[in-house]
Amino acid sequence: xxxxxxxxxxxxxxxxxxxxxxxxxxxxxxxxxxxxxxxxxxxxxxxxxxxxxxxxxxxxxxxxxxxxxxxxxxxxxxxxxxxxxxxxxxxxxxxxxxxxxxxxxxxxxxxxxxxxxxxxxxxxxxxxxxxxxxxxxxxxxxxxxxxxxxxxxxxxxxxxxxxxxxxxxxxxxxxxxxxxxxxxxxxxxxxxxxxxxxxxxxxxxxxxxxxxxxxxxxxxxxxxxxxxxxxxxxxxxxxxxxxxxxxxxxxxxxxxxxxxxxxxxxxxxxxxxxxxxxxxxxxxxxxxxxxxx
Length: 293
Known about the structure:
Blueprint: E1 9-10, H1 23-35, E2 47-52, H2 57-68, E3 78-84, E4 93-95, E5 100-103, E6 106-109, H3 112-120, E7 126-128, H4 137-140, H5 143-150, E8 154-160, H6 165-175, E9 183-188, E10 193-195, H7 207-223, H8 227-237, H9 244-257, E11 264-272, H10 273-277, E12 282-292
Parallel strand pairs: 1-5, 2-9, 3-8, 3-9, 4-7
Antiparallel strand pairs: 2-12, 4-8, 5-6, 10-12, 11-12
Helix pairs in contact: 6-9, 8-9
């Protein structure tokens, strides 16, 4: 998996659609979202990881910013991103060969040492697959936010495919070794996708209220680091949470890193596209969750 000698840039796939393609307009949108939040508490516990939505910034940015803003002025040297695959079906994790990740703010460098470490695992659940990254927006939409809040840390964007619970535990024991001081974990996921467009219509009455309740229940299980409870919730509700596999993997990683559960999660913000559009016939929920130590 050595990519040190290559010069390969992953170009933006959704700049100008999911977020502004102009750097000045993009910075203005991010600043406006941050400006609506209270100043971060410098005495607050260190943020170890966040779960963020990945819809277009018009819909999801205020929710995502609520979890990222506390990282302002904190030292983040490396960001590991876990996002779901929307375009390619596969099992396990897709590792990229790109050296750099281009956004309107410039390029972020890949944490190539970590890719080398992953290659040494010789795991059948870890494969080099640029095809899973070329169009994938779940990771890309987080990169300008990382640059705006954290500066220019190294990044390791990983697309997560299908995983069994056994796969989760196997990968978690390996992935935990990638953690180090100054590392931020970002898990990218929108929550319930409701409506005929998403083939998920479990209820038709009080839709917005019930969507809020369902997504809040899922977010609470995640914040409480209840991996078995989250898996049971998915089985019981069939909730169309696109990042359920990255979330499950992250919860497994936390169990390896912190079996005493000293890392605590809290819901930072919640919203739903139906609140903005006024149309809940097809709507998506957004949750941001912050994990601090």
